[in-house]
Amino acid sequence: MTLSLHPLVILLVFPGGFFLILASLAYEYVDRKLVARFQNRIGPRWFQPLADLVKLLSKEEIVPQGVQRGLFYLLPLFALASALTAALYVPMVGFKPAYTFQGDLIVTIYLLSVLTLSMGLAGASTVDRFALVGATRTLTQLFSYEAPFMLALLGPAIAAQSWQIGTINEFTGQNLWLLVAQPIGFLVALVGLMGKLELPPFDAPEAETEIVAGALTEYSGRGLALFRLGKDIELVIGLTLVSAFYLGGIHSPLDFILKTLGLLLVVALMQTLFARLRIDQVVGLWWRIGTILAVIQLIAIIAGRYLGTLLF
């Protein structure tokens, strides 16, 4: 359906651009509301994420001394553009991906990493000590979570014998939910997504009580708004990917809403249950445990396929 649309419409309106921005704000509201209710708070009103975005966009953007102005302005744009581009290869709202090719899964994973890299560079390019500490933690956590998250998404790809997101989505829709067949991969993918987005308890890179806003301490106005919007968009895309790979695929708008919001409920619950981990706990434990678990599952999948070939 989306393949018949004009490329500019695909990029700016649906499934990228305007639609994805509105969807990301809605999911941010649901996430904040769920966490608040779990903590016995009222939480924000429905328009609060939009109000926050408009407020930041209307504020003055202050450029601190000692930074490269071009890089300071371009990094938020790179972060947002990469997230919007990644949506073109994902079955948003149950429609076929707008663009697809063999290997688009790998491209999408790396596009989702540009946001974190941009945040790390944003903090490292300033002279503020809080931003420098936050940048160090951001990049360290990226390397710790990227490998397990990628390995967790490779399990369904191997099962479907394809590196194409659309093909994997169709395969999971025709078979048993891979959540049942690959529960370790599902857990690693979900925790890895939270680590990539620096959601609690993996929010050491931007711990407000320790380092103000981490790598984004020096950002204000439009730059901060674009970074925050990019993270919200990646939340929607990440939930869509995990749902498409492990929850039987996404083949209709109802599928999309039910499965992604169900995962968001689990994510909000995990944010509530666990206290913030130290950066050494995040890196040491997850790098060892998450990677080992993901590799064990991949070995089991490959061995299972090999034995199945020998027997049948």
TrEMBL record:
Its domain of life reads Bacteria
Q: Where are the transmembrane segments?
A: 6-27, 71-93, 105-124, 176-195, 232-250, 256-274, 286-307
Question: What does UniProt give as the signal peptide span?
Answer: none
Q: Please give the InterPro entries that the UniProt record associates with this protein.
A: ComplexI_Subunit1 (IPR052561), NADH_UbQ_OxRdtase_su1/FPO (IPR001694)
Membrane topology field: Multi-pass membrane protein
Q: Which residues form a coiled coil?
A: none
Swiss-Prot/TrEMBL keywords = Membrane, Transmembrane, Transmembrane helix
Task: State whether keyword Aminoacyl-tRNA synthetase applies.
Answer: no
Where found in the cell?
Membrane
Record-given protein name: NADH-quinone oxidoreductase subunit H
Name its species. Thermanaerothrix solaris
